[in-house]
Amino acid sequence: MDAVPVEPHVHCVLLPCSSGETWAVPLNSVAEVLVRGELLSGRLCWRGLELPVYPQAAADEQTGGIYAVMLGLGDLVGDYWAVNLQNRRLAYLLLTEADLAGLDEDGSIAADTLAVFALAGTSCLVPDLGALHAGLAAEPASPVG
Question: What is residue 32's predicted lDDT score, i.e. its pLDDT?
Answer without folding.
Answer: 94
